[in-house]
Amino acid sequence: MWIAISALNLAFAVMLGAFGAHGLKARATEAQLAWWQTATDYFFYHALGLLALAILSKVIPQLPIKASFLLIQIGIFFFCGSLYVMALGLPRGLGAITPIGGALMIAGWLILAWNAFKYAK
To answer: What are the TM regions of this chain, as residue ranges (predicted)?
Structure first.
């Protein structure tokens, strides 16, 4: 299931990146395009990270990844989603949730590090 979710994330990242490059370019401001690009970059990085976690869960099944995976996935939704929404011209106030998404992604990676340290012992 984790690999399938990761693959869906990667497919959406490609679609959204293509939309930004081809569909938004003529209509968006420089700032909106920058938000879209940042969202797409982070979407790709973290989707690849989720795929790595999914593979890791197959290689080391004892290593707990569920909490990390969920935090990162929710973080993608909030961080990237809020930037995408702002880039589409919707209220900039939604940018207030962008840092929450970033914090969730960071927490996911830190929990993975913690669990990896525990597993290594």
So the answer is: 42-60, 67-90, 96-117
